[in-house]
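User: My collaborator sent over this chain with a note saying "see what the structure looks like." That's all I know about it. Can you take a look?
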Amino acid sequence: MESDDTPVTDTDLGYAPIKMSAHMAMVDALMMAYTVEMISIEKVVAS
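Assistant: Without extra context I'll predict from the sequence alone. Here is the result:
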């Protein structure tokens, strides 16, 4: 989702020059998915 709560579409990612807000939303979602996958609550508590 972009900052205005609209979903990012493949069309948004295909603009030239790039639509920075769509790319930032996609990168943010990918980083969050990776973080959720790699870090468990047990690891956080143990740290």
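A starting point for your reply to your collaborator: The CA atoms of residues 1 and 29 lie 8 Å apart.
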